[in-house]
Amino acid sequence: MKQGPRPFLILTNELLQQYRMKSILKRIHRFLSQFIFDPLQVINNWRSIPYFIHNIYRYSKINRDSSFKIHFSKIYFTTADRFKSSGAIQSHYFHQDLWASRLIYEKGTKSHVDIGSRLDGFVANILTFCKVKYVDIRRMESAVIGLDFVQGSITNLPFEDNSIDSLSCLHVLEHIGLGRYGDQIDPQGHEKGAKELSRVLKQYGLLYFGTPIGIESLHFDAHRVFDPQTVLNLFGDLDLVSYALIDDKAGLVQEDSDFTKSRLCKYGCGLFLFRKSYGLDKITL
What we know:
Blueprint: H1 7-35, H2 39-62, H3 92-106, E1 111-115, H4 119-126, E2 131-136, E3 147-151, E4 164-170, H5 189-200, E5 201-213, E6 217-219, E7 223-225, H6 228-234, E8 239-246, H7 259-262, E9 268-275
Parallel strand pairs: 1-2, 1-4, 2-3, 4-5
Antiparallel strand pairs: 5-9, 6-7, 8-9
């Protein structure tokens, strides 16, 4: 008597089909969002209309303050925010910026140099306790106390050799040479940037470095994803003090992680603390 497929195999096939379908839908969503419109935002906007109408009716009925009367010429439809999360804690940037900020604070740093990291995240965090010299290829105007802006490229940093004690570059190197931010197309851009970071770091200085980690690949013209060993090779002149991982789920920072687990990620975030201290033993993961 011929037996049918085992329940386990049926379940496995169903899960694989669901995974493939989710993967296809994500790709479709990404394509539409980048080149046409965000279909999820459109859906949420339509879902929000009944709430929006109800809120207008309710507010108009109970409001007694003429200064805050609803005027249809000043309608600003944002009701779809009710379907969003309260913030972006589940993100590489949030945990990465917190990781670097805490380490720099614990070192008692009073003057720091950053190359292209997020101004409205990491840089804002550390400005609360130290001065920051910020370098980016794009122009910026700011009168923020403690923030000194220098326009420049990571492939040709405007600093002397061995001149910086405390240096950071978070979620930047993976973009270099892809033209995304107005830089020149250069397939070796990330290598040149890494050499410059190593060059300007002072003896015994620290580099706080974050980048996408996982199955090595290029997603043009957004970013690269590096194998963690590639990062070590890029900074061969520096010693690895510690390594931490934010996995694909973008949960909490996993301190003292290893490269094997990192290589299972599609788009994780590797957090590397490097020191320029020739002669010390390098950490092997």
